[in-house]
Design a protein that fits this description.
The protein is an alpha+beta fold and 192 residues long. It is built from 5 helices and 9 strands, in the order αβββααββββββαα. Strand 7 and strand 8 form a beta hairpin.
């Protein structure tokens, strides 16, 4: 097999692994030494103190209409199928307008459920190359800390990574500021 043919086979294999959600964690450099391959994941984190018991904060997210309650009015989103967060493997499907006249279907799957501390979902189909969202609730002397932790790989490769701070991170900040305020009001009993 020629060098070109072997490299093409390697590229095809790597693409198949990536499509399956897997990837190389290390590779050999020209000198045969192993070195870590850097994934291009970005992280967004939003934390808030909620003056309510962790169980109450977790229960709020378990409500059948929680996703609809947490969607800001400026987001053009239609919930097609809502999954129970306790049903690991269940899928939520939403349609979202990301730019005028561009609608995408976002399918996420619940992968972790450990009440009242954490639940997690991953994107199966949607705007990102990869997406993992962990909802973490920890006890605090004054109630609970709600932490949304999102690891994602932006679409459009280098350009996506370049513009993520201006576009994706900014949009996530606004979205989760709203979601945390809604959660705070519901769990602390404020209806302002």
């Amino acid at each position: 097999m020629t060098v070109v043919a072997s490299r093409l086979c390697l590229l095809a294999s790597l693409r198949e692994l990536r499509a399956a959600g897997l990837g190389c964690t290390s590779r050999q450099d020209a000198k045969g030494q192993r070195r870590q391959a850097h994934k291009m994941f970005m992280r967004f984190v939003r934390e808030s103190l909620i003056r309510a018991a962790p169980e109450k904060v977790f229960a709020f997210h378990k409500q059948p209409d929680a996703l609809k309650k947490l969607m800001p009015p400026w987001e053009q989103v239609r919930v097609i199928q809502q999954a129970d967060i306790s049903d690991v493997g269940a899928r939520t499907i939403v349609e979202s307008t990301i730019f005028p006249a561009i609608t995408i279907k976002w399918i996420s799957q619940h992968t972790v459920y450990e009440p009242p501390r954490v639940f997690e979902d991953i994107q199966l189909q949607g705007p990102f190359r990869r997406w993992r969202h962990r909802h973490i609730i920890t006890p605090h002397a004054l109630g609970a800390v709600l932490r949304d932790e999102i690891d994602y790989e932006a679409p459009f490769g280098f350009l996506g990574r370049l513009f993520a701070p201006m576009l994706i991170q900014k949009r996530l900040q606004r979205l989760f500021d709203y979601r945390h305020e809604i959660t705070r009001k519901a769990c602390e009993g404020r209806n302002e």
